[in-house]
């Protein structure tokens, strides 16, 4: 089916494919979502939320560059990367929904579950998970929620995020949950392109003019405080690592440091020295404790869905 | 599949294989919403078409990229095509494993892409092998050696990899990469330095 113009596309009866989110088919339709042995469904659901929320929130920040990137090619690149990550988020949230089962809603105390257009799975559905959870129920690392800053800040964060995520996905490919493993296998191919693209920009700006170099160094310094958190294991990650379903993120550090060192060397930039941002009473993004930026981000991400309780789609 | 009544076994089997043939023909003719010169079969997205004993059809498709927004359109188009071929019960399943690769694009599909001015992908497996061998990352050789020793699953590529991508218009091999990201998730942008035309390239994945 194709359309001659955008108006025809949105007026076609019952067509929901251009909606803001609700109304899409379940991305995992037909995929066997039986849990691997020795794994608690609630644990697996929470783990999928961690992996999915990282992708969802990072995607949202990248989408904010639409119409604002310095060159058309980079505009297109950022939109593509955001789309890949949004796809990963959809699959992972759908996996979380299937794993949590009907008890998921009650367990998390989420309001408004009746209004959600739960697509497939036994749980709340990807839409409700994305659009109707509260800030404290989001499990993403805090790095992804920071405001974008300038283009150099965004490239610094994307390099750090994709280097870390690629190392993580590459290990998930070999683990026990066949659905996460399949999503990760696809993600490795995509994030390889993301990391290379961000790394080339960091090199170009770092090894560029005096101005681009100082802006690039500032960008790295600005996001560096959130790097240590990426490798700090949450108890759930450790628990799942012991049964071969999750990855202890602390094992990713040597690879991350080696990749970053190679990029920074090529960019003639020094290793950033800004100190790590502490958690709140020992709690971090994985526990649902976020920075000030997160509330504003969710307000924008969720306001349309929250304004239409019947689950509108168009 | 239910065991057919013994006397009609032969006829049932023939009837069923005709149904499978009809369902497969209908599904294979559906075109990709974003690369309409290709069918889903050409693209390698169509994994399997099965017809149950009750006459219901199950089609398995696989996403090219996880975020590919065309997946929902593909499902709808497949459902419509199979209904048009007389199948009322249609189920579209997603197959995630193994992950789609551009190596699954058929030879016919590659020809149709080139005819439409889009350079077809080279072998993705070669790209993966090239990466393993550490294709041309700049910087000191010692850094590359360290990377291999550390056993990174995916080596870093700091310069756009050199690929042989002939211009689909003039055939010149003198082409350069403009951007590894294009108008859809699966395409890169290139430029021919001989005829000066920009063109799209389905990138290896």
What is the topology?
The complex is a heterodimer of chains A (314) and B (205).
Chain A: H1 6-11, H2 41-63, H3 72-100, H4 104-108, H5 126-131, H6 151-172, H7 178-206, H8 210-223, H9 227-230, H10 235-242, H11 253-266, H12 292-307
Helix pairs in contact in A: 2-3, 3-7, 6-7, 6-8, 6-11
Chain B: H1 9-28, H2 40-43, E1 46-51, E2 57-61, H3 70-84, E3 90-94, H4 107-115, E4 118-119, H5 124-132, H6 141-150, E5 175-179, E6 187-192, E7 198-202
Parallel strand pairs in B: 2-3, 4-7
Antiparallel strand pairs in B: 1-2, 5-6, 6-7
- The assigned structural class of chain B equals alpha/beta
The string of secondary-structure elements of chain A, in order, is HHHHHHHHHHHH
Order of strands across the biggest sheet of chain B? 4-7-6-5
- What is the helix tally of chain B? 6
Name given to the CATH architecture of the largest domain in chain B: 2-Layer Sandwich
Number of domains of chain B: 3
Give structural notes:
The complex is a heterodimer of chains A (314) and B (205). With 314 residues, chain A is mostly helical. Chain A has one domain (38-307): Ferritin, core subunit, four-helix bundle (Ferritin, Up-down Bundle). Helices cover 56% and strands 0% of the residues of chain A. Chain A is built from twelve helices and no strands. Chain A has helices at residues 6-11, 41-63, 72-100, 104-108, 126-131, 151-172, 178-206, 210-223, 227-230, 235-242, 253-266, 292-307. The longest helix of chain A is centred in the N-terminal third of the chain and has 29 residues, at 72-100. Residues 5-23 and 106-121 of chain A have low confidence and may be disordered. By secondary structure, chain B is of the alpha/beta class. Chain B has three domains: 6-100, GMP Synthetase, Chain A, domain 3 (2-Layer Sandwich); 107-122 and 163-205, no CATH class; 131-160, no CATH class. Chain B contains six helices and seven strands. Chain B has a four-stranded mixed sheet. In chain B, strands 1-2-3 form a three-stranded mixed sheet. Mean pLDDT of chain B is 83; it is low at 1-5 and 129-150. The chains are: A mainly alpha (314), B alpha/beta (205). The interface between A and B is large, with 57 and 54 residues.
């Amino acid at each position: 089916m194709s359309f001659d113009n955008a108006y025809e596309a949105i007026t076609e009866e019952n067509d929901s494919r251009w909606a803001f989110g609700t109304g899409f088919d379940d991305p995992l339709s037909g995929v066997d979502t039986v849990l691997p042995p020795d794994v608690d469904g609630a644990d697996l659901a929470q783990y999928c939320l961690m992996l999915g929320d990282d992708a969802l929130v990072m995607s949202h920040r990248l989408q904010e560059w639409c119409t604002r990137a310095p060159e058309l090619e980079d505009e297109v690149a950022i939109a593509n990367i955001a789309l890949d990550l949004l796809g990963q988020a959809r699959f992972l949230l759908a996996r979380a929904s299937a794993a949590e089962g009907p008890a998921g809603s009650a367990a998390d105390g989420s309001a408004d579950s009746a209004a959600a257009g739960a697509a497939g799975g036994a749980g709340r559905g990807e839409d409700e998970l994305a659009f109707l959870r509260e800030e404290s129920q989001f499990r993403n690392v805090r790095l992804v929620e920071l405001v974008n800053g300038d283009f150099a800040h965004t490239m610094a964060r994307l390099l750090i995020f994709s280097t870390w995520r690629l190392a993580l996905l590459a290990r998930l490919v070999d683990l026990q949950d066949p659905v996460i493993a399949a999503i990760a296998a696809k993600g490795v191919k995509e994030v390889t392109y993301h990391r290379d693209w961000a790394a080339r920009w960091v090199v170009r700006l770092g090894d560029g003019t005096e101005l681009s170099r100082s802006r690039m160094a500032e960008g790295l310094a600005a996001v560096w405080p959130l790097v240590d958190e990426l490798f700090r294991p949450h108890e759930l990650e450790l628990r799942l690592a012991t049964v071969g379903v999750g990855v202890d993120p602390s094992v990713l550090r040597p690879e991350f440091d080696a990749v970053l060192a190679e990029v920074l060397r090529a960019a003639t930039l020094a290793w950033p020295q800004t100190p790590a941002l502490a958690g709140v009473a020992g709690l971090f993004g994985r526990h649902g404790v976020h920075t000030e930026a997160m509330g504003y981000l969710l307000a924008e991400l969720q306001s349309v869905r929250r304004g239409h309780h019947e689950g509108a789609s168009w | 599949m239910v065991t057919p009544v013994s006397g009609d076994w032969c006829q049932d089997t023939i009837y069923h294989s005709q149904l499978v043939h009809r369902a497969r023909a209908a599904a294979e003719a559906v075109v990709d919403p974003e690369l309409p010169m290709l069918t889903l079969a050409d693209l390698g997205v169509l994994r399997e078409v099965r017809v149950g004993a009750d006459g219901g059809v199950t089609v398995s498709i696989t996403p090219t990229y996880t975020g590919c927004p065309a997946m929902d359109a593909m499902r709808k188009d497949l459902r419509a095509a199979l209904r048009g071929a007389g199948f009322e019960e249609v189920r579209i399943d997603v197959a995630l494993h193994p992950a789609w690769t551009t190596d699954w694009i058929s030879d016919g599909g590659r020809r149709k892409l080139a005819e439409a001015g889009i350079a077809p992908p080279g072998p993705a497996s070669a790209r993966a092998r090239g990466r393993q061998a550490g294709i041309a990352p700049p910087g000191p050789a010692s850094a590359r050696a360290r990377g291999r020793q550390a056993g990174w699953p995916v080596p870093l590529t700091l310069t756009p990899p050199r690929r042989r991508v002939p211009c689909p218009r003039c055939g010149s091999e003198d082409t350069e990469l403009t951007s590894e990201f294009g108008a859809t998730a699966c395409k890169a942008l290139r430029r021919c330095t001989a005829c000066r035309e920009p063109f799209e390239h389905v990138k290896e994945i």
